[in-house]
């Protein structure tokens, strides 16, 4: 990858309309909206803006589809403010920009009401001109990109064909999913052989692999995470699989190295919201992988990115420059240590 530098965030681009509510009401009853704000959302934008706010000094670019509406204008304005190349962000008059109404309760849990909008029109022809010198091409969220989430006679799915094309153009490829109910192996497994990095949460990994990672009794042991990660690597992921959960994350490399890194300790009152925490975690993995960090250091940074994300209601405002987060990380307490000390703990919501 000599001569290549930087990260492309491709796929889901939307606007989050975040409502902080007093409580989650029973059906037919009322809850107070205590605060409202608008923020960017979606895998591509969340990863890119997290990296930009970390001040990592890497070239960043976006690829996506938005509408010719006020939400689309808002996204372009943010891309310009963060100095992210937007030449491959296309606009359409036929449908609005994707949007999500996000309801966040005081304990940080959130519920999404999503309109797929223009993201559903993003398709293979829109990537034809993407031949930049960036190193990593990150695609997300699979399962929300309708035109790419369809069968392909040769590659299995159109998203798999896209990732194969990106590898053939010299990119390291990365993928993230959206958590959803249902059988979606046929839409995801074909893409795995065309990946260098896969970053997903424990529920997504459980649905893909069939390995039980979370039950009503709690989180499975790291050995189960290792089993799931091994299965994913066997499907063709070339370099790293990372499976993250609120309590910690398992990372595993194709050479067999694997490790469990507990999440950092946060008291419940420190958590403002968890919108985009999984994307912030992913941004940490991508930056550390881009820079050749060890697996342990990669997971520590990823947890730190997610932890800072929890301090804001939206997906952006919690992020701090990398140097500041590294100073904090040197003094942070992880969940396993805190549990030994009888502290209340929390971590990124996936």
Automatic annotation (TrEMBL):
InterPro entries: PfkB_dom, Ribokinase-like. Residues 29-313 form the Carbohydrate kinase PfkB domain. It comes from the Bacteria. GO terms for molecular function: kinase activity. It holds the Pfam family PfkB. Keywords: Kinase, Transferase. This is Carbohydrate kinase family protein. It comes from Pantoea nemavictus.
